[in-house]
């Protein structure tokens, strides 16, 4: 169907891009703290839930406890603190339904571009309908980008020599076939990150054998799937009290563990190795397969609920091989060591492709915005880009802890602008040659591959991408909105009819 272009007829105060955990959270805080503001959520896919609806591979779950990964305003009451995607998705959709957020979502509406006009103090957003190919436009005062930072339509798979020679199936976890039959088959999982360590024990329940092939080991820690303290508190206290106490406990524990790893990396390495050795069979080569060359939390630690990965290895249902791939063969892969691994199915759990703000092309007064040249302000705005906020969570803790604080700060910013009659808000660098560094100080391969396309961060607040919940709780929840590097202006905007946010067929 040829693309059609319609005149801009609908206006809303805030357009939220993405109906995942961040977008639903942003909508809740807007309704709670800025009830007079109109908003619309534009979701490119046909369903809400983001990551938790997209990924369908066996065993998919959060590796953060749901008392902190869930919303502060919505208690997690399931007995399992480390939960699967189905329970997380149900939690998100129930939250959206309870607060009427689901009626504000326009599905299959992909934001292609957005153009800022300083004269009008508003964005014109170009949207493509995935089901019809039709193009429409909307205007808004603010854009809140809640689309995460990776591509939803494709994952990362390296080029493997001889891949076309393999006679079995090659699958990326991001595109898992619903009808895949792996029962009684030999499965080779390439990778060692969170996806791989989740897949291996899940596949091992039905597969003949699962092999995890990794180039470099990853830190893996066993965590109980059920939080005994949380479940005990729920029996003694009202639901919200029990949730609040559990959440505070888990935040304190995770922060303490991260700080300990940062301050005493050698000791942290020894502790992790000790627990891994106890969980694995006697004589198992722990240092070969579970002793990374980097320090703990230089990359994210992988959590395995109730040690399921170690149990699968101990039962002989799974194994780990640390080596490099030489080439694919008709039966599997050959390694640089000369060893050959045979498989019926190969899963390339080799990572993600990053994509800033869902690939939205921005212009400010006709000038294209190059994300790689921008610096993040308070971890939620970009220098020189007016009325644009974005949500990126923690990499060293539960993602949603940061999202909640950013959303609260965003609502406080809107209130400040209303109180003073401002219509635009733009971060400005103290100097063009300000020293910067990568946005994400994180050693994961998917970050390193895309680091040159991402915005930057500075050396200190407010230009630093803080990963410290205690610090952020103070500055984002209670700190001043006005800042020497934040320029506010007043522009009398034209009036436009407000969009009917509940019209999903618009």
Automatic annotation (TrEMBL):
Pfam families in alphabetical order: FMO-like, NAD_binding_8
Keywords carried by this UniProt record: FAD, Flavoprotein, Monooxygenase, Oxidoreductase
Chain coiled-coil ranges: none
Cofactor(s), by name: FAD
InterPro entries in the cross-refs: FAD-binding_MO (IPR051820), FAD/NAD-bd_sf (IPR036188), Flavin_mOase-like (IPR020946)
Family: Belongs to the FAD-binding monooxygenase family.
Protein name per the record: NAD(P)/FAD-dependent oxidoreductase
Naturally occurring in which organism (per UniProt): Allohahella marinimesophila
């Amino acid at each position: 169907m040829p693309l059609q272009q319609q005149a801009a007829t609908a206006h809303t105060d805030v357009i939220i891009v993405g109906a995942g955990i961040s977008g639903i959270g942003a909508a809740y805080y807007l309704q709670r703290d800025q009830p007079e503001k109109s908003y619309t959520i534009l979701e490119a896919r046909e369903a809400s839930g983001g990551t938790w609806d997209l990924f369908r591979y066996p065993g998919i779950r959060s590796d953060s406890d749901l008392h902190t990964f869930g919303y502060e305003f919505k208690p997690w009451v399931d007995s399992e603190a480390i939960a699967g995607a189905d329970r997380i998705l149900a939690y998100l959709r129930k939250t959206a339904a309870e607060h009427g957020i689901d009626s504000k979502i326009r599905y299959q509406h992909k934001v292609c571009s957005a153009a800022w006009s300083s004269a009008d103090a508003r964005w014109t957003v170009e949207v493509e309908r995935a089901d019809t190919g039709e193009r429409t436009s909307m205007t808004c005062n603010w854009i809140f980008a809640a689309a995460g930072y990776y591509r939803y339509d494709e994952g990362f798979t390296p080029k493997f020599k001889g891949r076309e020679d393999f006679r079995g199936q090659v699958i990326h976890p991001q595109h898992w076939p619903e009808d895949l039959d792996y029962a009684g088959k030999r499965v080779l999982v390439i990778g060692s990150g969170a996806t791989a360590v989740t897949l291996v024990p899940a596949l091992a329940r039905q597969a003949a054998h699962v092999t995890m092939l990794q180039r470099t080991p990853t830190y893996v820690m066993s965590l109980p799937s059920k939080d005994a303290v949380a479940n005990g508190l729920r029996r003694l206290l009202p639901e919200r009290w029990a949730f609040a106490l559990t959440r505070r406990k888990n935040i304190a524990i995770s922060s303490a563990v991260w700080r300990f790893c940062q301050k005493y990396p050698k000791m942290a390495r020894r502790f992790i190795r000790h627990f891994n050795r106890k969980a694995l069979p006697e004589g198992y080569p722990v240092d070969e397969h579970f002793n990374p060359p980097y320090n703990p939390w230089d990359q994210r630690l992988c959590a395995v609920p109730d040690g399921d990965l170690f149990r699968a290895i101990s039962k002989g249902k799974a194994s780990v091989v640390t080596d490099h791939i030489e080439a694919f063969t008709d039966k599997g892969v050959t390694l640089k060591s000369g060893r050959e691994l045979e498989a019926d199915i190969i899963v390339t759990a080799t990572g993600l492709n990053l994509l800033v703000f869902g690939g939205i092309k921005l212009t400010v007064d006709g000038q294209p915005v190059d994300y790689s040249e921008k610096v993040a302000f308070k971890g939620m705005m970009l220098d020189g880009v007016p009325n644009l906020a974005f949500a990126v969570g923690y990499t060293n803790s539960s993602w949603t802890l940061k999202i909640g604080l950013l959303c609260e700060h965003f609502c406080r910013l809107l209130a400040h602008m209303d109180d003073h009659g401002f219509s635009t808000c733009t971060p400005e660098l103290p100097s063009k040659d300000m020293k910067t560094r990568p946005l994400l100080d994180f050693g994961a391969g998917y970050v390193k591959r895309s680091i040159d396309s991402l915005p930057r961060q500075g050396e200190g607040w407010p230009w630093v991408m803080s990963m410290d919940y205690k610090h952020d709780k103070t500055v984002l929840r209670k700190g001043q909105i006005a800042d020497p590097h934040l320029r506010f202006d007043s522009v009398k905007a034209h009036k436009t009819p407000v969009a009917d946010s509940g019209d999903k067929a618009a």
